[in-house]
TrEMBL record:
Protein name: Uncharacterized metal-binding protein
Transmembrane segments: 12-27, 39-57, 94-116, 122-143
Signal peptide: none
Annotated keywords: Membrane, Transmembrane, Transmembrane helix
Length: 155
């Protein structure tokens, strides 16, 4: 598997390419999806993607850099690390992102409820953009892991 710096670089490069593509679609209005895109949504998407790249990596299943980046809050991910053995379900393209997003959703929902914020007051387009950004970041990680493993087997 690539080391954490490589993962961060690959993910950032993919994001830049993706943002250019999405911006182009929005600017030229060349796809039906263009009507759902605006600068605000692109920004939310990109920030969620970057946050996931640095803090919500599927490598939260080990004592990895993304796990350590949580600092004193890393206990929030301790159950995840214990339940998932490395590169098991956390690196499954469906179960991995789903369980990480669910784990985060539980944490965020608890914080919002404690802060007295009504969950229904959050626009659904915001939630879609955040989720899409996070899931895509994790998928890029999983694909990178697979590609690098296959290349190592060939060479
Ligand atoms: Zn990994």
């Amino acid at each position: 598997m690539p080391e954490v710096k490589t993962h961060d670089r690959i993910n950032t490069a993919v994001l830049l390419a993706l943002m250019s593509g999405l911006y182009y679609i929005m600017w030229k209005e060349i796809a039906p999806v263009a009507e759902y895109l605006d600068i605000y949504m692109l920004l939310v998407f990109a920030l969620a993607y970057l946050f996931a790249t640095f803090y919500l990596s599927p490598d939260l299943d080990i004592n990895s850099k993304p796990y350590k980046r949580w600092g004193i809050l890393k206990f929030l991910w301790w159950p995840y690390k214990v339940i998932f053995k490395h590169r098991g379900f956390s690196h499954n393209p469906i179960i991995g992102p789903l369980t990480i997003v669910l784990n985060l959703a539980i944490i965020v929902a608890a914080l919002l409820l404690l802060g007295g914020i009504d969950l229904h007051s959050i626009p659904s387009s915001f939630i879609v953009a955040v989720t899409a950004g996070m899931v895509l970041s994790m998928e890029v990680h999983i694909i990178s892991d697979n590609v690098v493993s296959k290349m190592k087997r060939i060479f």
